[in-house]
Amino acid sequence: MARQKQPVTATAGTTFPAAETVDIAQLVEDLDAMLTRLRLGAIREQLDALLEEAARRELNLREALAWLCAAEVASKEQRRLSMAMTIAHFPFVRTLEGFEFEAQPSIDPSKIRDLATCRWVANGDNVVLLGPPGVGKTHLEVALGREAVARGYTVQFTTAMELLGSLVKGQQQGTLEVRLAQYSKPKLLIIDELGYLPLEPQAGHLFFQLISRRYEQGSVLISSNRPVEEWDEVFGDQVVAAAILDRLLHHSHVVTIRGDSYRLREKRRSGLFRPQAGGSSSSGSGVKPPPPAKEV
Ligand code: ADP
Ligand code: MG
Fold first, then answer.
1. Backbone phi and psi for residue 115, each to the nearest 5 degrees, phi listed first
2. Residue of the nearest CA to atom 18 in ligand 1?
3. Were both Cys, which of 51, 54, 69, 245 would link to 64 (CB 3.0–4.6 Å)?
């Protein structure tokens, strides 16, 4: 006579039956479904390999369970990371390991490594990266942003043009509040390329509203090709620029990068680009840069 099968899915009020009364063969058959129900996808996907490895290493039951859980935790962490990286909207992948400090002697490596600990993000401080085009500002923004994501902080990358364009549109369409709230949400907001392109007249006021909202709450990592003394020109309003800088710089780390564009350096090395007659090859000032290359 066929054995009476115990239902695998417990209903409210039921207790788990004694092992000897359970149909283990049926449980094994239902294992996939149970792992799915418990959202243990990594264990389900790699079950055979994980069990083989556990057997090969002669793990006891507790050790084997820990081994399976570790695989699930690692997979969930990997998924969280890749999701958070996608949400952050980085324009490309750059890392601190990939940054050649020797190529940019004006940067103190220990300062950047200290920033990579993300203590400043935990404290709600800001970082301002200043320097001419091509010296690695966006590279460092992305690299530091990825460090923050890896430490569990919410991060959003945007450009000054995109951000201010969105706020101006919000003001015109009556959705400014929603957009300000959206840009206030991430623990770290990265704003790239302030100062490259002229801003709309009301942009300074809108930017001020955002910076005030984030002040001492969330961090801003901002880069600009213009020194802060010129930000009144960038925003077209001295009072607004002073108010923005007052909040931005209050708890901040300013990194000023001087020197040659890394892009031009690479081009010079490969012989594709030569300084103009009379121009200096060691200083960016006498060299007319080519149009900005599209990043890949
Ligand atoms: P910026 O934002 O200051 O204009 P980028 O960060 O876009 O400059 O740098 C231009 C390119 O050169 C990027 O591909 C970047 O990864 C690379 N780069 C810049 N500086 C360095 C560096 N010191 N080491 C490695 N790559 C660099
Ligand atoms: Mg850049």
1. -65, -30
2. 136
3. 54
- Pocket of ligand 1, candidates 139, 266, 270, 296: which has the most ligand atoms within 8 Å of its Cβ, to mutate? 139
Model confidence pTM above 0.85: no
Residue corresponding to tokens 């919000």: 170
Question: Residue 20 has what pLDDT?
Answer: 82
Closest ligand 1 atom to Cα of 223:
2
Three-class DSSP labels, the chain: CCCCCCCCCCCCCCCCCCHHHCCHHHHHHCHHHHHHHCCCHHHHHHHHHHHHHHHHCCCCHHHHHHHHHHHHHHHHHHHHHHHHHHHHCCCCCCCCCCCCHHHCCCCCHHHHHHHCCCHHHHHCCEEEEECCCCCCHHHHHHHHHHHHHHCCCCEEEEEHHHHHHHHHHHHHHCCHHHHHHHHHCCCEEEEEEECCCCCCCCHHHHHHHHHHHHCCCCEEEEEECCCHHHHHHHHCCHHHHHHHHHHHHHCEEEEECCCCCHHHHHHHHCCCCCCCCCCCCCCHHHCCCCCCCCCC
State in Å: Cα 155 to ligand 1 middle. Answer: 20
Q: Output the pLDDT for position 254.
A: 97
Question: Atom 26, ligand 1: which residue's CA is nearest?
Answer: 99
Q: What is the pLDDT of residue 91?
A: 97
Token pair 């020194």: residue: 227
| Residue with CA closest to ligand 1 atom 6 | 136
Spans of the chain below 70 pLDDT: 1-14, 269, 271-296
* Test site for ligand 1: of 255, 258, 262, most ligand atoms within 8 A of the Cβ: 262
